[in-house]
Amino acid sequence: MPLPFRAIPPRRLDRLIALCGLLGGVVLIVFKVYDRADTAPLWAVLLPLVVMAALELVRRTRPVLAVTVGGLAFAGSLFAGSLLATMIMYTDLLYAAVLYGGPRMSRVLHLSGGATVLVLSLLAWYAGGTSAGLLIVVVSSLVFLAPVWTGDLVRRHRQEAESERLRAEQTALLSEMDRREAVVAERARMARELHDVVANHLSAIAIHATGAQSVARRRRLPEDDPLVEVLAVIRENSVQGLAEMRRMIGLLRDSGGGEVDESYAAPDLAAVDALLAKARAAGRDVGLDFELDERGERGELPVPVGLAAYRIVQESLTNALKHAGPGLVSLRLEFGPEELRISVDSPYRGEQGRGLPGARAGLVGMAERAGLLGGSFEAGPEDGYWSVRAVLPRAGESEGRA
Length: 402
Known about the structure:
Radius of gyration: 42 Å
Distance between the termini: 40 Å
Largest sheet: 5 strands, mixed
Number of strands: 5
Strand content: 5-15%
Strand order of the largest sheet: 1-2-3-5-4
């Protein structure tokens, strides 16, 4: 349990000790609780007390001066009239000198204190016998050695605590470095996997689509032929996906040390028209049409919110192309002052096509994006349509969580 004076600033604590010692000594003088109270002059008892209280103010900053002058004042008080408050403040000066003066000061005070105890004990033994010598040993040890031993013990404990604190900080730093190295290694591995698997497949799709377009041109197929349009859509999407994949690979490799690749621009809802154009071209042959309904003031969205909204719209349109029946797919964006609402309704044709590879994985990803921003997400059949509903906070909590 921490002591109450721990919270007091050091300089204020020194003033408090000096004031308490001075007031305590004055009380003892008033009641004449000191040696030779009837014969010793008042100034001879009061002067060492005032000097000792003044030295308490510099016990931390000038320990050598405090101990030297304090020793002279204490010696004078012994001859004039020993006052308990003066002796207690002198022991505090010894304690502070060891605690704040360093190892050399500790060695000096150990030697001088031991020598003082030895000399005083021998003099007392010579003058008053064994009992007087033993009494002086105990009393002088309490005055000259006990504060020194206590200060030395406290200083050692503080040094050990500081060493342990530094060791803990070093351990935490090493752990953080290991964690960062693991993140960098994982980023590099992910970049290699993306490049070796996904990017290569996208490159193959783009190359084959380009080759198929060349064959169509040699056969002089018209530009409005459905086959030519489908090949164009396949090539455009594969090339764009490959470019985005390569930017993502570069981001993973370059930002492993904490640097962000500024050349990578995260997509947002500004590209929603391009998404709809591609969806219309791809869904024309299966009887799908797409419409956009925007409500409210779009304004400027935080980057995490814009990216999450773009990905949710992109995944919803892709799911409509894969699973929806012929009809109209409605996309509605409602820009409110505090939140963005995304609604996508597509014709629902039961569970047909739900067994395709990756089915429902996109729904999990959209829900996770909304959840990370502090929003909500739900999807499911509703009145013959497959409905997607997402609510994303525009700023504040959403930006902080991202």
